[in-house]
Specification:
Blueprint lengths: L3 E7 L1 H4 L6 H13 L4 E7 L2 H12 L6 H22 L22 E4 L8 H11 L4 E6 L4 E2 L11 E2 L1 E3 H4 L17 H9 L3 E6 L3 H8 L7 E4 L2
Parallel strand pairs: 1-2, 1-4, 2-3, 4-8, 7-9
Antiparallel strand pairs: 5-6, 8-9
Length: about 230
């Protein structure tokens, strides 16, 4: 019986909140290794706060084109991906995948991917990876517990959502993606995920016990975004 393949989008701010979080990475590695008996994982890394710092630094000095902002973010995801691949060296496919549409003979237990090209976020790359490997579920790990009906940083009456359709989710997020956009799952990726009828689960990656519950088909805290 073939092992289930799960795509996990690992937010850059989990890997490098300010400095590289070695304790988090060690715990994350332990959790993934524990589930390799009956699962395989495609891990894609984001750029997170480091990406935004690089973009803001460049913009403080010169005018920076959208494309150059994208490339800065992509390079950050590549560095993060190489770090993650390194800690899974024995289990992982031997190179970081930069093109999520690349046909790969994926027989390893873990595959690590990075950002791809301008105009795409790591969310969109995760969707393309799911399509490539015929996976129907993506786990998006970031620094938020759930999706809210509006920005909880701005509205005290924002309500958490346990589940929401892609149609309704796309109504509460921006229509356009930018390299420094901070949203649970970006607009372009969401449109493609809806088209492919993917399910995306948003959860707080800092709470690894919660991810463990999800992988064990137990109750978890997070938001399931689904197709009708």
């Amino acid at each position: 019986m073939a092992k289930e393949v799960i795509v996990i989008s690992l937010g850059g701010s989990l890997i490098v909140p300010d400095e590289v979080d070695s304790d988090f990475l060690k715990s994350f590695r332990t959790l993934i290794l524990r589930h390799l008996k009956n699962k395989r994982f495609v891990l894609i890394t984001g750029g997170g706060k480091t990406c935004r710092k690089y973009i803001e630094s460049a913009k403080n000095i010169v005018d920076v084109s959208q494309e150059d902002q994208d490339w800065l973010g992509i390079e950050v995801t590549k560095l993060n991906a190489h770090l993650v691949k390194t800690i899974f060296k024995k289990e992982a496919y031997p190179k970081v995948i930069n093109n999520p549409t690349e046909k790969v003979s994926f027989k390893h237990k873990v595959l690590v991917a990075s950002g791809w090209k301008p105009g795409c976020s790591s969310d969109f790359d995760a969707v393309l990876l799911a399509k490539n490997f015929k996976v129907k579920k993506i786990v998006n790990l970031s620094n938020i517990d759930m999706v809210y009906d509006k920005d909880p940083r701005k509205f005290s009456d924002a309500k958490p959502l346990k589940k929401i359709s892609w149609k309704d989710y796309r109504k509460i997020i921006p229509k356009k993606w930018t390299p420094d956009l901070s949203t649970p799952f970006d607009p372009i990726a969401s449109k493609e995920a809806e088209k492919l009828k993917l399910e995306v689960v948003i959860m707080n990656g800092k709470k690894l016990g919660n991810l463990d519950n999800y992988l064990n088909n137990k109750s978890f805290v997070g938001t399931r975004i689904y197709s009708i």
